[in-house]
């Protein structure tokens, strides 16, 4: 299998415009993410897919691969356009605002497809357990619930499951927006109209569920910082500073 990684990168993020071009250490956020993905050594090729000349030029200046796309509502739609003429079997969608993603979670996603000899799984993603009440209730954290085989039942910014029965201690999981697609499934996804639930929640993977597709969720203990708001950038800078001091 030829496995590639594509990082969708939009400049005009609604909650934090220009966040991918913010400085993290001595590099931009998007450059840090790109170089960390390359350094995993898991991919035959790594690309940034963007509609921004600023981001395109930034990646080219560090010697990276970048593809210009048209404007899209979701990262998966952007990646589908970017890979339409690229020869590959598996596409890993790594969020541009997740600069500290580690090798092991990516390896776990790739293993899903290497072990799926009958090719029953077309999409896999990551989840991590949430423990703090503040994190569970934070709408910036997309929550996911799964069936007994680990396939997603639903994603929401609301608290799911709702703890009506307090005698039963519910478990909560945050969806980490890293997706692994079979290329054909990704191209088919991009042809589907955005669904009402996807539009309401602004969570692209709900489109898969609404059209009857299955998403295999892999639990990880990876703890990083997704940069959604300016406060997250400060957390990321603190993590980088601590890593440098060690």
TrEMBL record:
Pathway: Nucleotide-sugar biosynthesis; CMP-3-deoxy-D-manno-octulosonate biosynthesis; CMP-3-deoxy-D-manno-octulosonate from 3-deoxy-D-manno-octulosonate and CTP: step 1/1
Subcellular locations according to the entry: Cytoplasm
UniProt-recorded Gene Ontology molecular function terms: 3-deoxy-manno-octulosonate cytidylyltransferase activity
UniProt keyword annotations, A-Z: Cytoplasm, Lipopolysaccharide biosynthesis, Nucleotidyltransferase, Transferase
Lineage: superkingdom: Bacteria
Enzyme Commission (EC) number: 2.7.7.38
Catalytic activity: 3-deoxy-alpha-D-manno-oct-2-ulosonate + CTP = CMP-3-deoxy-beta-D-manno-octulosonate + diphosphate
Top EC group: transferase
Pfam families, sorted: CTP_transf_3
CDD domains: CMP-KDO-Synthetase
Assigned protein family: Belongs to the KdsB family.
PANTHER family in alphabetical order: 3-DEOXY-MANNO-OCTULOSONATE CYTIDYLYLTRANSFERASE, 3-DEOXY-MANNO-OCTULOSONATE CYTIDYLYLTRANSFERASE, MITOCHONDRIAL
Function: Activates KDO (a required 8-carbon sugar) for incorporation into bacterial lipopolysaccharide in Gram-negative bacteria.
Record-given protein name: 3-deoxy-manno-octulosonate cytidylyltransferase
């Amino acid at each position: 299998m030829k496995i590639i990684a594509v990082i969708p990168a939009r400049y005009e993020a609604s909650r934090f415009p220009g966040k991918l071009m913010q400085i993290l250490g001595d590099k931009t956020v998007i450059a840090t993410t790109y170089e960390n993905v390359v350094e995993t050594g898991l991919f035959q090729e790594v690309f940034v897919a963007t509609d921004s000349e600023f981001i395109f030029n930034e990646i080219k200046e560090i010697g990276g691969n970048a593809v210009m796309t048209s404007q899209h509502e979701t990262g998966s739609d952007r990646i589908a356009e970017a890979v339409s003429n690229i020869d590959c079997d598996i596409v890993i969608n790594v969020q541009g605002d997740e600069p500290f993603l580690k090798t092991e979670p990516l390896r776990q996603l790739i293993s899903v497809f290497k072990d799926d000899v009958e090719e029953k799984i077309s999409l896999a993603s990551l989840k991590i357990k949430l423990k703090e009440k503040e994190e569970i209730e934070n709408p910036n954290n997309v929550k996911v619930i799964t069936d007994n085989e680990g396939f997603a039942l639903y994603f929401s910014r609301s608290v799911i499951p709702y703890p009506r029965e307090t005698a039963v201690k519910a478990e909560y999981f945050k969806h980490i927006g890293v997706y692994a697609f079979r290329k054909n499934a990704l191209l088919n996804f991009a042809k589907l109209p955005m669904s009402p639930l996807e539009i309401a929640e602004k969570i692209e993977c709900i489109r898969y569920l609404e059209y009857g597709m299955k998403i295999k969720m892999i639990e990880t203990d990876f703890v990083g910082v997704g940069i959604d708001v300016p406060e997250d950038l400060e957390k990321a800078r603190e993590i980088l500073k601590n890593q440098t001091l060690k």
